[in-house]
Specification:
The protein has 12 helices and 12 strands. The chain is globular and about 50 Å long. The strands form 3 sheets. The protein has an 8-stranded parallel β-barrel, surrounded by 6 helices. Strand 8 (about 200-205), helix 8 (about 210-215) and strand 9 (about 225-230) form a beta-alpha-beta unit. The chain is of the alpha/beta class. The two termini are about 40 Å apart.
């Protein structure tokens, strides 16, 4: 009888640790922004602040497909992050998440997204980065917005959806605090700003000339972060000075550059170099990998920390 007690205790410990592990995996690192004012504070540049990690099209890590809600939620199990996603229209004018104009690369279907109704697209499955089918379906932008509230910021790229449709959806869901829009020109940004001054932006400002165009157009720099390009280069220093001087953060996206390096170690070295160069936001196809590489930066105390919480599903 007494010999069974140690075995019982060992079993209980294993069960307890297993339960703890499951709970730990289900907890999410969330960014909770209750108002557009919170969003502006979170996106404001402050010297020596922690970097913001952005998942490019969500993530492609661990077998999850890009532009899926499941991929974004998986990322939040490891790190707080914001996500760039791609809204695109179906034949019956439903806004779904899909980067390419065609289905072939990322789904089990073929042909143009615009040739299918939403119901037809729901028969397909998303593929992972290696081309393997997954259990996951193509989500709508509306589903992504409903999921994201209280968890993260969604950054909507421009993939041909009429501006007014995007603005209508943000206003319908009162999502100004956690949905931002990528803009490729000052004119593009000002369309949305005049319609809804609470919207924030990821603005393409890749040169001094573009910075001047935004400034001359009266663009509110307290409502944007600036995408300055995919690489570390000498010209970045002038852009950091100008953009940070306006109180805005600058972002480098490594998706088309350093994410292509062959090893985790080589990529991690570049991720750290991007932050050392002066970027405040690092966008990557591998946000979980980025989080591990940047632990020395992200664990520091920061004014942004007040918005980052741990939450169960």
């Amino acid at each position: 009888m007494f010999g069974a007690i140690p075995k019982l205790i060992s079993t209980l410990i294993i069960i307890t640790l297993s339960c703890y592990s499951v709970l730990g995996q289900s907890a999410l690192h969330v960014i909770q922004l209750k108002s557009p004012k919170d969003t502006r504070k979170f996106l404001r540049f402050t010297p020596k602040d922690i970097p913001v990690i952005a998942g490019h099209r969500g993530t492609v890590e661990d077998g999850y497909p890009e532009n899926s809600i499941e991929a974004m939620e998986h990322t939040l199990k490891f790190t707080p992050a914001i996500f760039e996603i791609d809204p695109r229209l179906t034949r019956d004018s439903v806004i779904v998440l899909m980067h390419d104009a065609t289905l072939d690369r990322t789904t089990t279907g073929k042909g143009k997204v615009a040739d299918y109704t939403y119901a037809e697209l729901q028969r397909l499955r998303l593929k992972d980065v290696k081309g393997n089918p997954t259990p996951y379906k193509i989500p709508t932008l509306e589903e992504a917005i409903q999921w994201a509230r209280g968890k993260t910021i969604l950054n909507l790229d421009q993939k041909g959806v009429p501006y007014a449709m995007i603005a209508d959806l943000i206003e319908k869901h009162k999502a100004e605090a956690f949905v931002m829009i990528t803009t490729h020109s000052a004119e593009h940004l000002m369309y949305y700003h005049r319609r809804n001054p609470d919207i924030t932006f990821s603005a393409h400002i890749r040169s001094k000339k573009q910075f001047d165009e935004y400034e001359q157009a009266g663009v509110p720099f307290d409502r944007l972060m600036a995408y300055i390009g995919p690489q570390i280069k000498a010209e970045n220093q002038e852009l950091y000075r100008l953009i940070n001087g306006k109180g805005a953060m600058a972002m480098i996206s490594s998706a088309s550059s350093y994410d292509k390096l062959d090893t985790v170690e080589a990529r991690a070295e570049k991720y750290r170099a991007i932050i050392a160069d002066g970027a405040s936001v690092l966008e990557s196809d591998f946000p979980i990998e980025v989080a591990k590489a940047l632990e020395e930066y992200t664990k520091k105390k920061s004014v942004k920390s007040r918005y980052v919480k741990m939450a169960g599903r």
